[in-house]
Specification:
13 strands; transferase; seven-stranded parallel β-sheet; 2 domains; alpha/beta; single chain; elongated; Rossmann fold; six-stranded parallel β-sheet
């Protein structure tokens, strides 16, 4: 059995693919795994670091919406489809699992041409063009949100890293707070804006931090490695405000926190829901509005708050986030609601769907 994963470009495509790879290997250490990628994607670093084979094919960017440029896609895809076919033939692929991104569409078209079963996983509430096309040919379609528009899709959540999927926040909280130098007993706000959307979150939290500290809240703030690190005025006896460039142990950060202020990327929403961490979601005001759609289901379930980027102000934080952080009962209820909505077993569910697709392919 050899599975080819097609999910290059961004961490949102690569991490679920690698989580599936890990789950496949846990079940059967002999399974062959090859990840397709392009030389410009994060997969050139992330895939080899995790010990999996990476096969590079040419990148063909796809328009996000139907435009006249779509007419040129088949011609530009021809070479990259051929390169994907060669990988499938060389590995004797049993199945292609696509997660969207530049490499997914050529992988789907190559698999269709060669008769290799296809599984599609869509992480976003609003599917991209590659997965819309791939879902037409797929044996099985998995999605991360319960109200996906993809045909015959099954809601399973997003495959997560084991350090996140198995995290018991309560059991690790004391250790996590000690690791960051936080007070073991104070309500704790975690802040991170990701790679694209950190600036507005950074500006807001830096402005409101003294007021939060005065109210008894401590803050762990990942500002982003390319952003200037603020110099907090941590007065003696005040709860700490700890800005750091980057958090390489998000499991510990989640365990240390009582609530998070963050963007609403599909992976972020899935991880916070799975570990039961309430959040104030601030969707990026760009793209096709998918981040708002990502966050809406867990917010509707009671596991978070939702605020437009333009409405994120120090006053909003004081009026909406602070009352949650200082109310243990409300924190508990929101945490429980997030956890009930979240899915920790998407990786194992997707392994089952891979086997199902392979069996269906053999049956014709």
């Amino acid at each position: 059995m050899h599975v080819v994963l097609a999910g290059g470009g961004t961490a949102g495509h690569i991490e679920p693919a690698l989580a599936l790879a890990d789950a496949l290997r846990r079940q059967d250490p002999t399974v062959g795994i090859t990840a397709l990628g392009t030389e410009r994607g994060l997969e050139t670093r992330l895939v080899p670091e995790r010990g999996y084979e990476l096969a590079l094919i040419p990148a063909v960017p796809l328009p996000r919406r139907p435009t006249p440029e779509l007419i040129t896609v088949p011609g530009r895809l021809r070479g990259t489809i051929k390169a994907a076919e060669q990988v499938l033939e060389r590995t004797k692929a049993s199945c292609v699992v696509g997660f969207g991104g530049y490499v997914a569409l050529p992988a789907y078209l190559a698999a269709k041409r060669l008769g290799v079963p296809i599984v599609v996983h869509e992480a976003n509430a609003r599917p991209g063009l590659a997965n819309k096309i791939g879902s037409r040919y797929a044996k099985v379609v998995a999605v991360s949100t319960p109200d996906s528009k993809l045909r015959d899709a099954r809601y399973i959540g997003i495959p997560l890293r084991r350090s996140i999927a198995t995290l018991d926040r309560a059991a690790v909280r004391a250790q996590a707070r000690a690791a960051f130098g936080l007070d073991p007993n104070l309500p704790t706000l975690l802040v991170s804006g990701g790679s694209q959307g950190a600036r507005r979150l950074n500006e807001t939290i830096q402005a409101v931090a003294p007021r939060l500290q005065q109210s008894g809240v401590q803050i762990l703030h990942a500002v982003g490695p390319k952003n200037e690190l603020p110099q907090p005025n941590n007065m003696p006896g005040m709860p700490p405000y700890l800005p750091v460039p980057y958090l390489d142990r998000m499991d510990l950060a989640y365990a240390a926190a009582d609530m998070m202020l963050c963007r609403a990327g599909a992976m972020t929403v899935a991880e916070l829901s799975a570990v039961g961490l309430p959040a104030a979601y601030v969707p990026l005001p760009i793209g096709n509005g998918e981040q708002r759609l990502n966050a809406q289901p867990v917010v509707k379930a009671g596991g978070g708050l939702l605020v437009d980027d333009a409405e994120l102000t120090p006053e909003w934080v004081l009026g909406s986030v602070l009352p949650v952080l200082t109310d243990p009962h409300r924190l508990y209820e929101m945490s429980r609601s997030a956890a009930e909505f979240g899915r920790r077993d998407a990786d194992d569910l997707l392994v089952g769907m891979v086997h199902e697709a392979i069996a269906a392919g053999r049956a014709g």
